[in-house]
Amino acid sequence: MTTVIDRKLAELGLALPEAAAPVAAYVPVVEAGGLLHVSGQLPFKDGALMTGRLGEDRDVAFGTEAAQRCGLMLVAQIKKALDGDLSRVKRVVKLGVFVNSTADFTDQPKVANGASELMQALFGEAGRHARSAVGVAALPLGAAVEVDAIIELA
């Protein structure tokens, strides 16, 4: 069955990856009080982790794509947690975007737009959200970006 989200992904030339298994002692998604709390997701492209440090060996365009790829993994995790029923997503409440960047790199908000714009493209007005975009000294496995989310359920 093709859903609205599937059609929007196709229009964007994107596809959801397989939901990644945790790499440490945590679960990918916790449902509590009508909210899904989605653990931080890393960016994968063509099966490979997108690594590097913004402001050092990676630029804003790379980071923006990495954030979008994190967003795709978030949606994959949400879909898996909801047994495939993305129509239960009432609102993307908040994204937390962590950018592996140098001390003088200040374009974290531009990088974070990769995930934010994806949520809006897929979920419409319900995809508009609060957000944090912060630079960090390092991320797991050398990832360029990591994004977590809070999702309200219908």
From TrEMBL:
InterPro entries: Endoribo_LPSP/chorism_mut-like, RutC-like_sf. Gene3D superfamilies: RutC-like (3.30.1330.40). Coiled coil: none annotated. PANTHER family: ENDORIBONUCLEASE L-PSP_CHORISMATE MUTASE-LIKE DOMAIN-CONTAINING PROTEIN, ENDORIBONUCLEASE-RELATED. Residues 8-147 form the Endoribonuclease L-PSP/chorismate mutase-like domain. SUPFAM superfamilies: YjgF-like (SSF55298). This is Enamine deaminase RidA (YjgF/YER057c/UK114 family).
